[in-house]
Design a protein that fits this description.
Elements: H1 29-39, H2 45-61, H3 64-80, H4 88-100, H5 107-126, H6 132-146, H7 153-166, H8 170-180, H9 195-205, H10 209-216, H11 231-236, H12 238-243, H13 247-261, H14 271-280, H15 284-294, H16 304-323, H17 346-368, H18 372-381, H19 430-440, E1 445-447, E2 451-456, E3 459-466, E4 472-484, H20 488-501, E5 506-511, E6 515-525, H21 532-554
Antiparallel strand pairs: 1-2, 2-3, 3-4, 4-6, 5-6
Amino acid sequence: MTGRDEFTGSRTNRAGAAPDGPVGGGRLPALEAALADARDLPDGPDRQVALERLAERADAAGDVRSGVDARFALIEAYLLDGERWRLVEPVRRCRAAADHRPELLTDNETGLLLRYQRYAVEALLGTPRVGLDQTRALLHDLAHRVGTDGPDAPTVAELHCRIADHLGDEPTARHWYERWSGKRPGPAGGCPGCASARRAELLAGWGEWRAALGELEKRDGEPEPCTDQPERDLVAGLLPALRAGERERAAAAHVRAYRRHRREPAAFPYLAAHLRFCALGGHLERGLTILTEQLPRLDRPSDDLAAMEFAAAGALVCALAEEAGLGGRPLPRPAYGGRPATDPDVSTLGALLLGVASELAGSFDARNGTGHHSGRMAAWLAERPLAAPVALPADDEPDEPDADGSDGPDADGSDEASGSGERELMALTVDMITAVLDRRGDRYLVEEGDTVVGRWGGVVIQFRRAGERGEVLHARAMAARRLPATRRSEAYAFCNAWNHDRLLPKAYAHDIGEELVLAGDVATDLTHGVAPAQLTVLVDAAIATGVAYAEAVAALP
């Protein structure tokens, strides 16, 4: 489970799930074949267009089941491509079909449609391209379906709260916050592991710094299996800690969280908090470095809200740098599309970013009928450093004390854990595998049976210990793209060619019924032990070759 970007539960990728055959009423064979072909297309606009046309054909032919299947696949394609703003119409059409024929959907599909409906409502928060009235209608419909006492009632309360806050209606937002606070999200809700971070962000927006930090400290018992943690909580508490006078805590949180967010595509919405910390914490040099490093992401933002906040936070860094006499420093801006590469100075870049933030804030306010976001961005730009800067921890500093209770290197400057210990042979453990992924800044889950699972682009990779004594490192890579069972001979030919030309991973096709999973294995015998440095090389290689394998699968015609 993930936090902000937690799309899971794909109905087309369910191994062992019940068939999606008609429940009263048949499908047209031509539409079934066309749907299989459309699902087989590579990710991107071509697949979306094919699915959109197929849904229209199904409507025209009166094949309701195929129309729903096409729209479910279309919703998944929009989510995969980061286009949640497109969800409203296909969700509305699926909902109308299911209401007209209640027997149409399986129990699993009914629950999944509720989750998709939540995604469609949340899309309003990220972009002004979704209508306010449309979203309110979907939210009221969702509230009616889950009821006041159902398991998803907290989910509805959260959505009401966040939308009211988005519109600048703090009293209404606080009303719904009381009905949401302290309650666990239902099946259609967001990630339980990130609920505290979402609440802390609201409290921080209302100026309640200590309450925001307290919300993050309420966790007890076993941690939620969330791949965004602990960095999600760290960044949510970043500015509240700084404003509450806990500068060292904020500095440590920033360094640890940015170590991961630096290169994680899904972390773009968190970069504004890192930039604002640098601005308000007096770390302008680091702020300019982060802005330069992350500026290319603004050309391909995950949503408009994240782009607006990143641009405003970047403009604040530039404004403070200009006040500090750094306005003439050139900052590289890479080429994008038809725009050539340039080297604007800090002052010029700040003006460009201010224009982006102002334009997006105006778009949100025009849709919402308020001036809330323009005012909010203006308030950000009027902020000034809160206190003298404190020293930042080194980027390679360990996050936790060593097992002996020390905080790092020994008094003589050596560090057994990261120096000679990196070359010392030891028995393979799950903790060693997760430590490598932690250092890389990767997201992962540890599933039952001590299997470590993560996703890198178009590949899901599982790491586990195999063998009688757990002495074999086994990595299994599974390409996200699947092929219909009718292409079995092509899949076998692809795997044979891959195995002939490459050493890793060992490729094969796994038949799960109507679809083929193209997977690959890498197994390394570590009977005599493995050094942490060696394990890092093995994990890096497994991920690199797994990603290359998935890219080759995605490139199949």
